[in-house]
Amino acid sequence: MELATEQRLSRYSAPYWWRLIATALSFTLFGVGGVFLRIVVFPLLSLLPGDAVARRTRARATVSWTFRAFVEFMHRTGVLTFEVQGIERLGRPGQIVIANHPSLIDVVVLIAFIRDANCVVKQSLWDNPCMRGPIRAAEYISNSGSMDMLDETSEALREGQTLIVFPEGTRTTPGQPPEFHRGAAAIALRGARIVTPVVISVTPTTLTKAEPWYRIPSRRFHFEMRVGEDIDPQQFSAHSSAPIASRKLNEHLHQHFIKELAKDERSAA
């Protein structure tokens, strides 16, 4: 499935006032939808037959479908356009998906296109009334930074789950290159079969760190997601200790993203 030609950036951009209203409506629907899933949908799904894995799979598929509908809503109302390249290579067993984090909706778009993905999410979202239902039903993993988190993520990968991780831990500061923590590399070396980088760019920048949702850009923004080539984590750990291997893999990933994002900046200039 190649979506690069499906949602091309159009010359037309809806008026500012309409995009502001559509953005407000999008976030309202997102919040209401999260509460509706927690109160109505997931309790009903839990009544269906199946073991814990089947219930988790249904919950993740529901979250994925809901997020895909949310992205389509933002597209059709003129808030954004999007382009996705290589998405068919995501969602494989034991795959860790490493992505940069320029905007608030990065995880939404990734989960929208990966039907059965696990994800490391911020601890604060576990108590968010709009998000805690989907997060707990889908059994996502809290980014607590503890050894328990490393054990959970590694075990999920060894079980054959797909795991989404943002090595920055928070959204990229506008105008600055991403800064990767070694946690993602450590997780990959402990349990991943393959590491797949996903480069995300948002033009013009919006929904960035410390930026309110209503500060929308002068035109609708374009969300682009490119899936990179697979990386074998074992090539970094074969002849190195765990700390050295983690540092090498992290640096390799960091340089890959720096290079790819520089290409985006040059093409946008």
UniProtKB/TrEMBL annotation:
Biological pathway: Lipid metabolism
InterPro entries tied to this protein: Plipid/glycerol_acylTrfase
Species, as recorded: Pseudomonas turukhanskensis
Keyword check for Transmembrane: yes
A Pfam short name: Acyltransferase
Descriptive protein name: Acyltransferase
UniProt keyword annotations, A-Z: Acyltransferase, Membrane, Transferase, Transmembrane, Transmembrane helix
Domain Phospholipid/glycerol acyltransferase, residue spans: 95-203
CDD domains on file: LPLAT_AGPAT-like
GO BP term, pick one: phosphatidic acid biosynthetic process
